[in-house]
Specification:
The complex is a heterodimer. Chain A is mostly beta strands. Chain A has no helices and 8 strands. Chain B has 3 helices and 9 strands; from the N terminus they run βααββββββββα. The longest helix of chain B is centred in the first third of the chain and has 18 residues, at 10-27. Chain A binds chain B through residues 6-9, 11-17, 21-22, 24-31, 43-45, 52-53, 60-69, 78, 80-82, 93, and chain B through 2-8, 13, 16, 19-20, 23-24, 27-28, 33, 35, 42, 44, 51, 53-58, 80, 82, 84-92, 117-121.
């Protein structure tokens, strides 16, 4: 790490509903093209790069995905310096309504 | 039951966590950790530039007014609504309003203030005119000059 490179922890909120996990992170100065989201096994890495003059800031956060996360279907979007990650849950982990038959 | 947790595996994971903690302690001030805007004036090509981190603030919630030699910047971050979602972790702060007032430095006229919003960063640019040096004021003499 050089003197002009700063590593900043990414502040995140995490939500869930029956269908997905939603991770929201504040990353001011990071555009969609400066954002890097990688999934390697159950390891999710969010990394954003921000340049201001000659200085550079790197936002980073690493999570362990829950077992019911659909690792191949993670999507991300960035707007107004806020990053949103959608992590769908696998179909077999979602609540399933059982139809009650009547005779 | 499923858990969404920090990555932590062996020394690599621990090193990263340690680095994050140290980074937070050393480089995040109270203002930043509370999610409030942070920024300061920088000199760029002879002009003054103020950058404020205002993630989640749409452009229409930013107001910049110049009154005399005073500039006031106001930014409002709306509360987020995630209907149908259950919170698992909350670290960010939303639903705040911040206002910052500053006096224009010498060499900056009120017409030379410009502002833009990019990816949650508010940039205020003050164009500094080069110092023209002292101006000598002619001293009038005689009664007519004094009346004018």
């Amino acid at each position: 790490m050089t003197a002009e490179e700063h590593k900043v922890a990414l502040a995140c909120d995490i939500y869930e509903n029956d269908d997905e996990y939603l991770v929201i992170a504040d990353a001011p100065g990071v555009s969609g093209s400066g954002l890097d989201v990688t999934v390697h096994g159950d390891r999710l890495t969010v990394r954003g790069e921000r340049s201001h003059g000659e200085a550079r800031s790197i936002y980073e956060r690493v999570f362990t995905l829950p077992q019911n996360a659909d690792q191949g279907a993670v999507s991300a979007e960035a707007r107004d310096g806020v990053v949103r990650l959608h992590i769908p849950k696998t179909a077999d982990s979602k609540p399933r309504r059982i139809e009650v038959r009547t005779s | 039951m499923y858990f969404f947790r920090e990555w932590d595996e062996g020394s690599g994971g621990l090193r990263l966590l340690d680095l994050l903690r140290r980074t937070m302690n050393e480089e995040m001030t109270d203002e930043q950790s509370l999610g409030r805007p942070l920024g300061g004036f920088e000199r760029e090509n002879g002009n003054l530039v103020l950058r404020l981190d205002v993630p989640g603030v749409p452009a229409d919630k930013v107001d910049v007014t110049v009154h005399g030699r005073t500039v006031t910047v106001t930014a409002e971050r709306p509360e987020e609504n995630h209907e149908g979602f259950r919170p698992l972790r909350r670290e960010r702060r939303t639903g705040w309003k911040v206002s910052r007032t500053m006096t224009l430095p010498a060499g900056v006229s009120p017409d030379d203030v410009s502002c833009r919003m990019d990816d949650g960063v508010l940039t205020l640019q003050l164009t500094v005119k080069p110092d023209q040096g002292p101006r000598r004021v002619q001293i009038g003499t005689g009664p007519e000059e004094v009346r004018q």
